[in-house]
Design brief:
Elements: H1 3-19, H2 24-39, H3 58-70, H4 74-82, H5 87-90, H6 98-108, H7 113-121, H8 133-144, E1 153-154, H9 155-171, E2 177-181, H10 182-185, E3 190-191, E4 194-199, H11 203-213, E5 216-222, E6 226-231, E7 237-244, H12 249-257, H13 260-272, E8 276-278, E9 281-283, E10 289-290, H14 295-301, H15 350-359, E11 364-370, H16 382-398, E12 403-411, H17 422-425, E13 430-434, H18 443-455, E14 461-462, H19 480-490, E15 493-497, H20 507-516, E16 520-523, H21 534-544, H22 558-565
Parallel strand pairs: 4-7, 11-12, 12-13, 13-14, 14-15, 15-16
Antiparallel strand pairs: 1-3, 2-4, 5-6, 6-7, 8-9, 9-10
Helix pairs in contact: 1-2, 1-4, 1-6, 7-8, 18-19, 19-20
The chain binds one DNA strand through helix 2, helix 3, helix 6, helix 8 and helix 13.
Length: about 575
DNA sequence: GCCGTTTTCGGCCCGACTGTTTTCAGTCG
């Protein structure tokens, strides 16, 4: 019995209890037990006594033991027998929770979406106590687009929307301060909606301008402090705005950045100090409310260092405070080691990219256009590579301290050979190897290709090591653990590709890379100047895996970097 | 259901919004 199955079973039990209208604290006890298991890195076999974990007691431990010994949970089986299957998906219908669904089932026998629709159309629902005509109408409306809207959207779909809204907020004079919050600010790979915190003393004016300027598909709620809309984008995007006064801004930003578990931990901490955290500030024992100029000041109030949004997840981050200073921030980044120009499939010239890199504040970077195999991307032959080098040299002569290195993003071919000979590679400053073809090969073949790159003395880095697209495709299925072990053995760099389509390596793999002390490079893979902005996203994503600054190659100085790239020459 | 240096009962993070209510329950984040 694996741990994941046990975690899922506990969560299922919680869901069923919720559907029966059970005590919410009992429901959350099962979820907490699941979270406690998930948050512990040990395997089940390594734990001698699960009840030692905080959140697991007699009841949940009995479920776990039974699962380990028999493979089934009698508690869950019984719940499943007593609850109609059709009710489960209805939990996702906005506005309906366990209590209401329990009532609909108990009093009207509603056990499916179809039955619910029929009951609403017959006007039976509005006759129930606690329900009314509006509820019935809302249920019908939600049933109409039930299942048609994506539950969570990938970060690359949300990022441009966030940029657009940020620009709009900056143009509204009544907005004193504003920031995105929620899971997007924590750089989660997918989000259910986008949250914004807006400081203003004129909420009505801000509300009017937002509603007038945004492509609103639907207004879900529009109160004095909260506006909730669905925007008309490729996929409908839910956006929440919280309007607060400037003195409550830092507290609200913290509160709505979450995560939920992080907030719970913070509130418990406050409570132990006889204080109370709300989104408006921190209430003291005497009833007065302290507010803060910044999130830094908020954390300092509890004698904590600033905890970056990206690590505010399980609550365990409060146990890892001493590691926070080892995390990288955007200001630590000296270089971007992977990008394209008009020589292959990029939108800007070498000189234009160079200027933009200097404007980013970098002290060096590498131009890495595609290699000859990738014809669709106008990949470079050895001859064109030489011509490009002349252009790069000219740029360097004209630009003093900043150094642009000549590199390549070389394809690893389907047959396991590399796209350039060693004679070509050794002339280059920096060699990236990557896979862009034959994704569906069996794992052994993919690994043989990667091994060819790993063992070549002139290759420095493997780019986007799994080829995944966030929320779209899993990639080419390498044995990532082995790949990371090779990177350690052959002293190669693995990329954290910062493009929101990729975020590759993913957090779980970065964590293993950290265990082994493998070097990581955070690169934008920019095909145009405006994509250089993804560096910030990549750096913050690295924080989620607690990647150490010293292992991030592009935080190194130019001299350190040169020492590494010349090591085999 | 879980937890405990206010410890075996009584609380469990907190507040906004909505719709249903004449003071609150349910849902959501």
């Amino acid at each position: 019995m694996n741990k994941k199955t046990i975690i899922r079973t506990l969560e299922k039990i919680a869901l069923y209890l919720e559907l029966r209208g059970e005590n919410p604290f009992k429901v959350s006890a099962f979820r907490k037990a699941a979270a406690a298991l998930e948050g512990d890195e040990r395997s089940l076999a390594e734990m001698d006594d699960v009840t030692k974990l905080k959140g697991i007691g007699k009841g949940t431990a009995a479920v776990i033991t039974e699962l380990v010994e028999t493979g089934v949970s009698s508690v869950l089986v019984e719940l499943e027998e007593q609850t109609p299957k059709g009710l489960i998906p209805l939990m996702k219908l906005p506005g309906l929770g366990g209590k209401k669904l329990a009532k609909l089932y108990n009093e009207l026998g509603i056990d499916s979406a179809e039955a619910l629709q029929a009951a609403c159309e017959e006007g039976k629902v509005q006759q129930l106590a606690g329900f009314g005509a509006k509820t019935e109408e809302k249920i019908l409306k939600e049933l109409a687009n039930f299942g048609t809207r994506a539950e969570r959207l990938p970060i690359w779909q949300l990022e441009p929307v966030v940029l657009e809204i940020e620009t709009l907020l900056q143009s509204i004079v009544e907005v004193e301060s504003a920031s995105v919050a929620g899971s997007f600010r924590r750089v989660k790979e997918t989000s259910k909606d986008i949250d914004f915190i807006v400081a203003t003393s004129a909420p009505q004016a801000v509300r009017e301008q937002l509603l007038a300027s945004l492509p609103v598909l639907e207004i879900v709620a529009a109160g004095d402090t909260k506006i909730s809309v669905v925007l008309d984008k490729e996929e409908p995007v839910s956006v929440d705005f919280r309007l607060v006064t400037l003195d409550a801004y830092a507290s609200a930003l913290h509160h709505f950045t979450g995560s939920k578990d992080h907030n719970v931990r913070m509130r418990q901490l406050a409570k132990s100090m006889n204080q109370k955290i709300s989104e408006y500030g921190v209430e003291q024992e005497d009833g007065s409310v302290v507010t803060f100029d910044s999130e830094e000041a908020f954390f300092a109030h509890f004698n904590l260092p600033f905890i970056p949004p990206t690590v505010r997840e399980s609550g365990n981050e409060l146990e890892r405070l001493e590691e926070l200073s080892q995390l990288a921030s955007r200001a630590d980044i000296q270089a971007d080691l992977h990008m394209h120009t008009t020589w292959s499939d990029g939108a800007h010239s070498v000189a234009e990219m160079g200027e933009a890199l200097i404007a980013q504040g970098y002290s060096y970077s590498v131009i890495t256009d595609h290699s000859q195999y990738l014809k669709v991307a106008n990949g470079l032959t050895p001859a064109r590579l030489q011509k490009q080098r002349v252009e790069i040299d000219a740029f360097n002569e004209a630009n003093g301290q900043f150094r642009l290195y000549a590199g390549t993003e070389m394809d690893i071919l389907p047959d396991g050979s590399l796209d350039f000979s060693d004679d070509v590679l050794k002339e280059l400053d920096f060699v990236i190897a990557s896979i862009h073809s034959s994704f569906s090969q069996p794992q052994e073949q993919i690994m043989a290709r990667l091994e060819a790159a790993m063992t070549n003395p002139y290759v420095h880095m493997i780019a986007h090591p799994t080829g995944r697209i966030v929320g779209e495709r899993p990639g080419y299925d390498p044995d990532v653990k082995t790949l990371i072990e090779w990177a350690k053995a052959y002293d190669k760099i693995l990329e954290l590709n910062a493009n929101p389509y990729r975020l590759d390596l993913a957090v779980e793999h970065l964590q293993y890379a950290m265990e082994l002390g493998v070097k990581i490079a955070i690169n934008t893979d920019a095909h145009a100047i405006d994509q250089l902005r993804f560096m910030d996203l990549g750096v913050r994503y690295s924080q989620k895996a607690w990647v150490k600054k010293e292992l991030i190659v592009n935080t190194w100085t130019k001299e350190q970097f040169e020492a590494y790239i010349r090591r085999n020459k």
